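Protocol step 4 of 6: structure prediction from sequence.
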Amino acid sequence: MKTNHMLAITRREVRETLGDWRVVLPMLLLTLILPQLLVAASSQVIRFVDDPDLAERLVPFGALLVGFVPASFSLITALESFVGERERNTLESLLAMPLSDNELYLGKLGSSLLTPLLSSLVAMLIFVGLLLGFRPELYYGSMDLSRLVLLLLLITCMAVVMVTGAVVISSHITTVRAANLMSSFILIPMVGIMQIAAFLIINGRWTALWLVAAALVVLGALLIRIGMRTFSREELLSREHLQGQVRWSVPMPAWWGKRRSKRKAHQARWTQSAVWLIARRELNEVITDWRVLIPLFTLIFGFPLGLLAGVNLALGFVEGEGNIARLIPFVGLLVGFVPASFALITAIESFVGERERNSLESLLAMPVSDRELYMGKLIAALIVPLFGSLTAMFTFLAAIRLVFPRLYLVGMQPESLPLLILMISVVNLLMVAGAVVISTNTSSIRAATLLASAVLVPTAVVIQLQVLLFIAQRYDVLWYVLAALFVVALGFIRSGMAGFNREEILSREHDDLNPGRIAATWRSFFREYQPAGVPVTAYQGLAFSPRRFYRHEFPALLRELRLPILAVLLVSIGGTWLGFSFAPSILNIDLQNQLGNPPPPSLSLAAFVFANNLRVSVLSNIFSVISFGIFALMVPGVAFGQIGFFAGQLAREGGNWLALGNDSPLQFLLAYVIPHGIIELPTFILSAALGLRIGAALLSPPPGFSPAENLLWALANFAKVWMLVLVPLIALSSLVEGLITPRVVLMLYGG
């Protein structure tokens, strides 16, 4: 084998991967921003829980998680290494290169491994570097050189196993859709290995981790060997999609034909509608490929039965059946969420997949309206994951009802089942609607799948947070969560239908990552304000002017942000209500004894508050790019939720809203909130509105803008507002919080 031949293939693939901003942007955010968030989260958790051994258990696993996430999301570059070439019609030219099969295979493997491995290792080193720089006591209390080397080795081995397995799948699969669904046989076992690693780290079994690493080395070498021995370019060229098709032929009785003929006239209008014709076309393609059906049925039936065994195991370790019974509805929700998350690929490639299969032109040429075409695709993409999710949930609940009837009766309230059905349906609708929007605004399946993390990650976080509500059996709050998710799903559908235009999809080409052009466009947006949708060529080329910004541009921008500001205000009101009504029923703390003891007023306190708020304003808005603004909305939601929690706790303890006193919610607001909050809270409402605008940039660009231009416009205007408005207001509120608020607290509480 010639190394230079393999390196040529690797360079070609890496250049293509790094040339698309839609691929680079999520990778950079996961690599550079995620470590900072986890370091901040680790600090907050350790500060909240007074456990001297927590760092030793938490920090190493945090480093491992930081490395695992970029590798798992970058897996798409490996999954389409060969099958992606087939759908882009470049497979023949690739296989015609004067290379041996082993050289071609290893070149593809190296290019698929390089990006996720470097991303993971860099993310881990950033995490460790931040710990050494800002929280050295956490690092030295939990890590040493041998442990760091072991964690780096573990991530390297995991990346090798995942990428090698993905390349093996890609070389034996005929569609990207099937390859992505088959990836569940890689990702789910690797998540299981992560859980084993977490268990070993928590229990200090570092020696056993070396055995896990050794097993991964052997598995990676075995997968490489299998891939090289089974790879054949002749078989790859001759393999067709028909090999994966399943012909459904079910014998029907004679009366069925008569009954069908009677109903045919009534169904003619619906079956001939454009929406149904498009949906039926998509469904036929999905349900006739066994490579799609096998992983889907495994997740629908295998995963619930596996969790049933986990419930049986948990009964032997957890005291009290009631604690497990309260989790039964949440586990049912989780069982329904997993098939939907993996079946999401049918929605992700609804339009961009047609482009790579060269069938987009014929689809868009159909004599149907844009609305009918979009709705047909949306319905087809929704049916399969929704059916899979509901079937998996009913399978799990039925198994629990048969095997553990007592757990079922204790855990399932009368309203639990309707709530679960609606919650799973809305979650499916939300994810599919978001994925279809992404599919209409991307030019490659690789980029669309990476951007799908913007839908999947926030939804998964919302699902995980619901465990507290299920444990507390606060079904009243869950109904509000359901309503909020439904509103977001409707927003995705409305945004997608409003922004869908077949002419723009046909004219959209692959967006190369051109740093010079990106910088020039961003500078044009930064120097002068024009409403979103005005093309760059229409800008006058004015120099940046703070005076013009304050007098004309900032008021115009506020008018354009009126809907995001309204959304943030609603989230803030909802956060206050949730904190006031929900948190005191779970957490019971003696708040009165903790009030009235502020830190001494000082410039150092003001500087600390300023640095923390500045970091939050930047990170939450940057991370909004891949979360549709969810991270930005969390800032005011959490802030107002804390205010509502403390005020509600004092009211629950008997405090009077109309009188001052140590137990008075009014006094708490006057002392701890109003002095600096009258500046800080509106500042973060404005910051969250800008973040929400950034998050929505990729969803529905206005006419005249591409998604990339819309994102650059949002980022440029955020930079101006951040520099000229947010930073001064954050500085002012920090000075008040560091110098004045402590004095007000001491004056009112008599310290």
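Step 5 (inspection) to follow. The longest helix spans residues 707-749.
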